[in-house]
């Protein structure tokens, strides 16, 4: 039986977008009618990849300075967005679409709209202790208490809470999860949700061993980017593909060694991921899940002051799948960590994680969860 499914996407970073694309593709392949509610570059990205998209208001706006999350400015900017009109617009979309079930990826306006209309809803998150953003700044600790009450109230009311991570004991984002006892029965782990299945991807023809750097060369990450180039120049036996982002002036960078290629943009990173021996990236959860689903270890440089990314990186290292790196790491320290990784330090564990991801089949598991919720209602 074909279902109407509405997916709401948090547009703060493409991690949410990538895993929602995986969910949308799987649901569409199964014959369901899928609509995505998204905003900003997220809506553009989904539309370019063939999804039916409806524009929704931004729910939160994250503001950072010099590599750190600025909580005060983030709160002010989010307040400016105006949540009451936003909820009205989202509710209108739900009423127009009349979905059988809703998947909301960290987009709480969509979750509230579903609860108000008594539509089955699954909330997808990789962090349930968001109050720590406030607790780390004494000026906003009172808001942290309010945030905790709000999120815990939501977790109690939704039909399912989806964690797009490996089940215990292999959960990478474990340090970011904290559910009250009466919410735990609704929590389900789907495993990774890569936008492209490993078996469907043709590997890029790259010289081995090969390192894929996703750090980028802008702003506060520029010094790390330069030190990675320096590390590449110190060992010509290890090859690198460096993604810089469009618009970076190559003249501002140190000379590239012959074993490193600089690319401003790759429309599809999965062929490169399938062919590399190591990824270097910040601390985003989805990037980690994609790498591990492909059996690739990671050196993670989490953003400073971003506790969620730092916890992800700590979990990555604790599970033996890579290493948490510091922004102050020298080129020699980076090279030492790269050598360890390409020489197989994490290979056994990441191969296990790749195999486990294939066995779980995250997109299929998520589809079945949503189908069960909808069919129970019909």
TrEMBL record:
CDD domains listed in its UniProt record: GT28_MurG
GO molecular function annotation: hexosyltransferase activity
Domain Glycosyl transferase family 28 C-terminal: 238-355
Family assignment from sequence similarity: Belongs to the glycosyltransferase 28 family.
SUPFAM superfamilies the UniProt entry points to: UDP-Glycosyltransferase/glycogen phosphorylase
Tree of life domain: Archaea
Protein name: Glycosyltransferase
UniProt key word Transferase: yes
UniProt-listed InterPro entries: Glyco_trans_28_C
Keyword Transferase: yes
Originating organism: Methanohalophilus portucalensis FDF-1
Pfam families linked: Glyco_tran_28_C, Glyco_trans_1_3
Keyword terms of this UniProt record: Transferase
